[in-house]
Amino acid sequence: MDEREKPSISNENPIGGEMGQAPLVNADIAQDFAKAAGWMVNRIRTDRTSFVDTFIKNPLKKFYKSYQDDPWLRAATSTKMSAVINLFFVFYQAYNAYRRSSLWFAALSVYYAWLTFMRVNIVTYMQTLAADGREELRRYRQTGIYLLFLTTVVMVLGVVSNRLGYRPSYATHMLVVVALFAVYNVTFAIINLHKWRKLEDPLISASKALSLSCALVSVYSLQTAAIGRFAATSDARVINFFTYATPIAIFLVIASISLFIILRVNWVLKAIGSDD
User: Fold this and answer.
1) Dihedrals phi, psi of 163, to nearest 5 degrees
2) Minimal CA–CA distance to 243: which of 229, 216, 223, 218?
3) 200 to each of 5, 56, 210, how far by Cα in Å?
4) Residue 201, exposed/middle/buried by CB under 10 A (0-12, 13-18, 19+)?
């Protein structure tokens, strides 16, 4: 065959050029794809950084600065956190009431549900709605009335349940949960009494009263759990003493706080000439 008739090898198609085949990979397309992929990766990184800065980092920094500078925001945040934790305990006690058909657990669930409602109500009106604070005073008095009523009901149910032989049955995990909840409430109440002592406001005072009452009832709930768990191996005289002594002492403390709130608000509203 003449040399001129042999197929020429193209420099542009080195792969399989002698066979007249197209290259397996087009270098230009691969390069464009790599550029596009790199652009997408950089774009995702940029968008992710922008998203994190816009919706997470910057709001958190702004909130933290406001939290440091504004004691009212700290008080409202503390009350909200306590309301959320109480809400979990409401569902937990409601579940126990359903599983064990216990009036005692149902009463605790209703009690803490109402406390949660009152805390949410306080947060809603944490900022003064009226120039002279009348609305705050009325809600402060409302807190005292509810505390007096709810504590009376819980204490009576506790005495009746323990005294008439209907002691609630607590599993080990329930005892642990109640103990942790009691420790949290007592610690939270002590911190609140100290931290907000300089904030003179009816709603702050209402929040402190709720925290203290919740802590006392939690201690009583823990005692009831311990009695129900260890009554069979304990001294009957000691159990009978604490069955009456603890609820009476707690009721007297909370009743004193409630009556002080009610009478004080009545006196202030009467002094400023408005109790509509």
Assistant:
1) -80, -35
2) 223
3) 106, 34, 16
4) middle
For the chain, the residue count is 276
**pTM here?**
0.70
pLDDT tens-digit map of 19-76: 444 554 455 666 666 666 666 666 666 656 665 666 566 667 776 676 566 666 777 7
Integer Cα distance of 29 and 35 in angstroms: 10
Rg (CA), the chain: 34
Closest CA to 217 of 115, 145, 117: 115
Cβ atoms of 154 and 108 within 8 Å: the answer is: yes
Residue 125, judged by CB atoms within 10 A of its CB (0-12, 13-18, 19+), counts as: middle
Which tokens sit at 49?
A: 């950084």
